[in-house]
Amino acid sequence: MLQNRHLLGLENYPREDIQTILDTAFSFREVLDRPVKKVPALQGKTVVNLFFENSTRTRISFELAQKRLSADTVNFAASSSSLKKGESFKDTAQNIEAMKIDAVVMRHPTPGAPWHLTKFVDAIIINAGDGTHEHPTQAILDMMSLQEKFGRIEGLKIGIIGDIRHGRVALSNIYGLITMGAEVTLCGPANLIPPFITDLGVTVNHNIDEVLEWADAINILRIQRERMGIGLIPSIREYRRLFGITTERLAQHKKEIVIMHPGPMNRGVEIDSSVADSDQAIILDQVLNGVASRMSILYLLLGGKIEQPK
Fold first, then answer.
1. The CATH number of the domain where 194 resides is what?
2. Are residues 122 and 158 in the same domain?
3. How far is CA 164 from the centre of its chain?
4. Which stretches within the chain are classed as H helix?
5. Is position 9 within any domain?
């Protein structure tokens, strides 16, 4: 079992708990490779997916993880809820919990919203992304993908490239990777890297080619234009020239670099299609590992049981 009742973020999250999640996730990855991809581990449990922001990968990944564990799943979309009629966040949450649910998977545009939800409901809360703050389950699936590729996380050199300031994936990855003993270098435009970020134990280098020469793997983040407004980068073409991961740029480095991307990708901006679809990329592995790692998180937090196949 895990030391924390909820999964709200990876800041100060125990190393042994991250490793337990990863180890359990690999067990569920084997389940996903079976002809029957389902176990009764969470039969009788009810999980609500409470999404206040649009999502494709994360919502589908969680829903599939819940169904693979035999949990009952309820999907809540804020755009079609009573919130549009003026109902408060607190009343919505408490009305949902009154229906006897066991866990809430929550995405919200406001940093800290999942923590706020723990004050109103007794169910287990899992943060599926809160604004520009954290996205802990994405970082866990990224770490699972690295461990699958390299056999370890400790000592790996990981470059995180792109919009660090607005990327909740970046912060959760920083917390998780540093906790697990990796070295992390951030690279991107100076105004998209937060001040004092080096206090978290990372290095900042604005020269993409130096980072590529150093790194074992790079995690490429998109420019989040929907969060940043206008004017933080001169142009898409300029960004691609300085920080884009292109076939030509990679060809200059005589080494194998593992390519990661949490999606959604802006092909032709931060990453070329030829790179995203290459043998160096483990992007689709990340998607499959997302289901396995979220199965692991749900199972461990909800106290599920697995019957071994006969």
1. 3.40.50.1370
2. no
3. 14
4. 15-32, 57-68, 89-97, 113-117, 136-150, 168-179, 208-214, 225-228, 236-243, 247-251, 273-276, 283-302
5. no
Question: Are 123 and 194 in the same domain?
Answer: no
Q: What is the pTM of this model?
A: 0.93
| Sheet strands side by side (includes 157-161) | 203-204, 183-187, 157-161, 217-220, 258-260
Domain that includes residue 235, residue range: 136-287
CA distance 208 to 261: 16
Spatial separation of the C-alpha atoms in residues 266 and 127, rounded to whole Å: 25
The CA distance from 233 to 110, in Å, is 24
Specify whether 127 is located in the same domain as 142. Answer: no
- Tokens 């992304």, located at residue: 129
CA angle 107, 158, 279 (to 5 degrees): 90
Cβ(285)–Cβ(263) under 8 Å? Answer: no
C-alpha span between 293 and 57 (Å, rounded): 13
| pLDDT tens-digit map of 233-270 | 667 888 899 999 999 999 999 899 999 999 889 899 89
Taking alpha carbons only, the member of 125, 102, 101 closest to residue 113 is: 125
Q: Is residue 104 part of a domain?
A: yes
**Confidence tier at 216 by pLDDT (50, 70, 90):** very high
Instruction: Report how far residue 15's alpha carbon sits from residue 115's, in angstroms, rounded to the nearest whole number.
Output: 21
Looking at residue 281, the DSSP 8-state letter turns out to be B
